[in-house]
């Protein structure tokens, strides 16, 4: 494959499985560099990994003729993918808090490569509130996590906490490596967040969208090599690195930007949640409260997705979202046709772990000919599934 993977090994009994993982990667033609913590060396000798990887193993000790400071930066930059297996509760906590007190944690903090971790620990530790919060933080930052399996643990207990098998981890690694640069040469436009429709200088109507899904898609598209523009409503989220961000506030502003820009892009993902209505009259002064009822007239906003669909080009792929509270799939399929979309992402926003403001999502990705439902996962993970569907259609159209 010609890819470089850095594998971090921490102090868990599952470290022996990582030897098999490295062996499988080498057979696939992947170059592997291994970093071992001091505790990991209590379970597996560095020589085992050196023999399998055919590369020197980096440990937490200084080696004659090698600079620890230079080496951790070198490995951080070299990695196409960084894998931690097993990932103990300790290293997960360090990653979540940005602690860099040994070679592995320092290199992880310095890398800009995608990171995949395979947790392994006692069931109680895995289910502990602190661990769950640390995992949530890492997922939100885009770290890929392979959920540990259920079974008999080293301590003799039975439950969730066993590191995934090397075969499963290898499959995930291959998938993540294959994603890299598959959007190179393509231009991707993403919309995200809610719009705001002002009543007066201090009040507006909006919705709970935070922009997390759209920002995750923009970040994923950039990681996969695309040139990305993000049109965002008001959001507290940081702009993804390397992504152009265009700030808007109202649905009419979004409408104007989309009409001006949409035909210039190969893939357009409309993850924003624009308001369907605006106030007929916006007051220049604060509307004062009184004891009487108040009636406010509202008028329809332009339909952004429908307008973009009308000017769609022959090779372009349009992706839309259907955030529903009932008849989810039926409504989503109707939207696919009405808005001239190629892909629609449908979800029930009333479900726990899905929809607005959540770090995770539960969705179905629907095209004209296919429908794939995904269980709860991070929005960053779902972003790649959405881009996979769009890219497949894009490739077919560009062939023609």
Mean pLDDT: 92
What fraction, in percent, of the residue positions are helical? 25-40%
Instruction: Walk across the major sheet and give the strand order.
Output: 12-11-8-13-16-17-18-19
| Name of the top-level CATH class of the largest domain | Alpha Beta
Number of strands: 19
Give the number of domains: 2
The description of the largest β-sheet is:
8 strands, mixed
Any idea what the radius of gyration is? 24 Å
What does the model show?
The protein is an alpha/beta fold and 400 residues long. The protein has 2 domains: 4-179, Flavin prenyltransferase-like (Rossmann fold); 187-399, Rossmann fold (3-Layer(aba) Sandwich), CATH 3.40.50.10300. It contains 13 helices and 19 strands. The strands form 5 sheets. It has an 8-stranded mixed beta sheet with strand order 12-11-8-13-16-17-18-19, with helices on both faces. It has a 5-stranded parallel beta sheet with strand order 2-1-3-4-5, with helices on both faces. It has a two-stranded antiparallel ribbon with strand order 6-7. A hairpin with a 3-residue loop joins strand 18 and strand 19. The longest helix has 21 residues, at 379-399. It starts with a strand and ends with a helix. The mean pLDDT is 92.
Topology:
Blueprint: E1 4-9, H1 15-27, E2 31-36, H2 46-53, H3 68-78, E3 81-87, H4 89-97, H5 103-110, E4 115-119, H6 123-127, H7 129-140, E5 144-145, E6 149-152, E7 158-162, H8 166-179, E8 187-192, E9 197-200, E10 203-205, H9 212-223, E11 227-232, E12 244-247, H10 251-261, E13 267-270, E14 277-279, E15 298-300, H11 304-310, E16 317-324, H12 328-338, E17 343-348, E18 360-367, E19 371-378, H13 379-399
Parallel strand pairs: 1-2, 1-3, 3-4, 4-5, 8-11, 8-13, 11-12, 13-16, 16-17
Antiparallel strand pairs: 6-7, 9-10, 14-15, 17-18, 18-19
Helix pairs in contact: 1-2, 1-8, 3-5, 4-7, 9-13
């Amino acid at each position: 494959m010609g890819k470089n993977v850095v594998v971090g090994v921490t102090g868990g009994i599952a470290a022996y499985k990582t030897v098999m993982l490295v062996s499988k990667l080498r057979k696939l033609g992947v170059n592997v560099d291994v970093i071992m913590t001091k505790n990991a060396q209590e379970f597996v000798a560095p020589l085992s990994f050196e023999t399998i990887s055919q590369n020197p193993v980096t440990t937490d000790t200084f080696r004659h003729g090698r600079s620890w400071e230079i080496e951790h930066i070198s490995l951080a930059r070299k990695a196409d993918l960084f894998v931690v297996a097993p990932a103990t509760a300790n290293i997960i906590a360090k990653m979540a808090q940005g602690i860099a007190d040994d070679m592995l944690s320092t290199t992880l903090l310095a890398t800009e490569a995608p990171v995949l971790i395979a947790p392994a620990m006692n069931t109680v530790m895995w289910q502990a509130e602190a661990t769950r919060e640390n995992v949530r933080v890492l997922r939100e930052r885009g770290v890929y996590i392979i959920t540990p399996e259920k079974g008999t643990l080293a301590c003799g207990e039975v439950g969730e906490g066993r590191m995934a098998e090397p075969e499963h981890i290898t499959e995930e690694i291959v998938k993540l490596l294959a994603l890299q640069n598959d959007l190179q040469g393509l231009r991707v436009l993403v919309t995200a967040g809610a719009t705001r429709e002002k009543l007066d200088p201090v009040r507006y109507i909006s919705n709970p969208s935070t922009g997390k899904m759209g920002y995750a898609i923009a970040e994923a598209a950039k990681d996969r090599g695309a040139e990305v523009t993000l049109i965002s409503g008001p959001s507290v989220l940081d702009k993804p690195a390397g992504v152009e961000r265009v700030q808007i506030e109202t649905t009419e502003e979004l409408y104007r930007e989309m009409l001006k820009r949409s035909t210039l892009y190969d893939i357009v993902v409309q993850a924003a949640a624009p308001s369907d209505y605006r106030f007929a009259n916006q007051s220049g002064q604060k509307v004062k409260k009184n004891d009487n009822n108040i009636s406010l007239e509202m008028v329809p906003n332009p339909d952004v997705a429908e307008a973009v669909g009308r000017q769609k080009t022959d090779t372009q792929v349009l992706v839309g979202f259907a955030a529903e509270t009932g008849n989810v799939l039926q409504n989503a399929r109707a939207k696919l046709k009405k808005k001239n979309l190629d892909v629609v992402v449908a979800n029930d926003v009333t479900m726990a772990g899905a929809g607005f403001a959540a770090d995770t999502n539960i969705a179905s990705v629907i095209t004209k000919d296919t429908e794939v439902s995904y269980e709860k996962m991070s929005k960053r993970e779902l972003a790649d599934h959405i881009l996979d569907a769009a890219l497949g259609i894009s490739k077919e159209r560009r062939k023609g």
